[in-house]
Amino acid sequence: MMKKLILTALVASLAACSTSSPDVIQRGDAQRMSQVQDATVLTVRPVTVDGSQSGAGAAAGGVIGAVAGSSVGGRREGQVVGVLGAVAGAVIGNAIERSATKEEAVEILVQLRNGERRAIVQSKGNETLVPGEPVILVTTGGKTRVSRAPVVTQAAPVPAPAPAH
């Protein structure tokens, strides 16, 4: 039971580590001025962002495998099985980390107003972008996200103040 609980906690913590979603803003990017560029979507295609292999999954899996394996049999058997359990746990932990951090994403090819083209890969967000649609590219801290361009309406003119008598 304890092993399952530890494995579940490991998977949950790895899944929450990172995202490329346009709907999630990193804490360090809040209240920071961003560069905004107007563009038009040329193409959108689905891609998969490969999962990370930071070593955390392998390390956690190795520890769990070693502890589980060392409890088998006598002292000598426990040591051998503990080593084998550590190796197997590391392999399984790495695979779990990689799988838990994999994301379904889109590659968006856009054309800027000056004619230049850019490709941005980001996780699928709440917006579905289509070719020909106006978008904005928001760049903060070297990372760019694409979102639908806001509709700009003509503001009513502000009346001049009445002259003082």
Automatic annotation (TrEMBL):
Supply the name of the protein.
Glycine zipper 2TM domain-containing protein
Going by the UniProt record, its keywords in alphabetical order are: Lipoprotein, Membrane, Palmitate, Signal
Keyword Hydrolase tagged: no
**What domain of life does the native source organism fall in?**
Bacteria
Q: Which residues form the signal peptide?
A: 1-22
Provide the Glycine zipper 2TM domain boundaries: 56-97
Its subcellular locations are: Cell outer membrane
Among InterPro entries, the record links this protein to: Bact_OM_lipoprot/Surf_antigen, Gly_zipper_2TM_dom
**Record membrane topology:** Lipid-anchor
Return the Pfam families for the record.
Rick_17kDa_Anti
